[in-house]
Design brief:
The chain is about 45% helix and about 15% strand. The longest helix is centred in the last third of the chain and has 17 residues. The protein starts with a helix and ends with a helix. The protein has 15 helices and twelve strands. It is of the alpha/beta class and about 300 residues long. The strands form three sheets. The protein has a four-stranded parallel beta sheet with strand order 2-1-3-4, sandwiched between helices. Strands 6-5-7-8 form a four-stranded parallel beta sheet. It has a four-stranded parallel beta sheet with strand order 10-9-11-12, with helices on one face.
Length: about 300
């Protein structure tokens, strides 16, 4: 394994490449990445890098976003099949029709969507800044929020708004079992439940803290509590454990039993060190976006970044 890591580091230097990895990636990829973060942090880092090549260890829409922000750079993803159930739940043709049916609405889209959806959007947001983005819009302005209905519902409750929600969702964040979670909580009385806002309402209702991946890590780090149940993709536990090695972190249980009894994104886990090495070596799985689409998709992203 060390030999493969050494080869990746050597190639990265030769090709003036930077590796960006999401918190949900395999720990081995997180460890070799130049930057590990959530959607907002990765978007900002992608825009700020001076590397010639970006290898985005995440899912397809993330690599697309990096390309939108860096048209002059070559952007690669270790596995082109690393998609996103949430992004796939919002087909551009259907969303375009939905938008046309509500012409007076401003469109705010969660960054977990395709470039085509971003191009149909007024402002992009992430889970970290969704509340801030929505609150920047006058209360009387009608809003379409897409594609995540759970995040949209959470923001509606926080703001008192009645945004029109696209019926999309993430299978990873809808995989938690409320019954198993309550039973687990009984085993660890006094523990705190920390959840991502993409989770369903019944999970959020019993959570002590709700926030983006980076906010969850920060909360656990700063909390005086010692034990936490973490309701998001299990990959986050790697960085979280590094930040709080003396605290007990327990993944929230999934509806279906699997190898880790947790919720794991099969798309995120398609990326491996071997695939990362191959795409650097052979310059495969490059992300291409037409200039017209890129320019349209860039507008709502820049609006988000200016507000963040």
């Amino acid at each position: 394994m060390n030999t493969l890591i050494d080869k990746i580091k050597k190639l990265k230097k030769e090709k003036k490449a930077v590796i960006l990895a999401h918190y949900y990636q395999d720990p081995s990829i997180q460890d070799i990445a130049d930057y590990v973060g959530d959607s907002l942090g990765l978007s900002q880092n992608a825009k700020g890098t001076d590397a010639d090549v970006i290898v985005f260890a995440g899912v397809h829409f993330m690599a697309e976003t990096a390309k939108i922000l860096n048209p002059q750079k070559r952007v690669f993803i270790p596995d082109l099949n690393a998609g996103c159930s949430l992004s796939d739940s919002c087909p551009p043709d259907l969303f375009k029709k939905f938008k046309e049916e509500h012409p007076n609405h401003l469109v705010i889209s969660y960054i977990n969507c395709s470039a085509e959806i971003k191009a149909l959007t007024d402002i992009v947001c992430t889970s970290a800044n969704a509340l801030k983005i929505v609150e920047s819009v006058p209360f009387e302005t009608p809003i379409i929020f897409a594609p995540d209905k759970n995040l949209g519902h959470y923001i509606n409750q926080k703001t008192g708004r009645n945004m029109l929600l696209w019926e999309g969702s993430c299978i990873v964040h809808e995989a938690f079992s409320i019954d198993k979670l309550i039973n687990l909580y009984k085993e660890y009385p006094g523990t705190e439940i920390v959840a991502h806002p993409e989770s369903e309402e019944h999970i959020l209702k019993i959570s002590n803290f709700i926030g983006s991946t980076s906010e969850m890590i920060r909360y656990v780090k700063n909390s005086p509590k010692s034990t936490f149940i973490i309701a998001t993709e299990v990959g986050i536990l790697h960085k979280m454990t590094e930040e709080v090695p003396n605290k007990t972190l327990i993944p929230a249980p999934a509806l279906e039993d699997n190898t880790c009894a947790c919720s794991e994104c099969k798309f995120m886990k398609l990326n491996t060190l071997e695939k990362l090495y191959d795409c650097l070596l052979n310059e495969t799985n490059e992300i291409f976006i037409s200039d017209e689409l890129r320019e349209k998709a860039l507008i709502p992203i820049d609006r988000m970044l200016s507000l963040s």
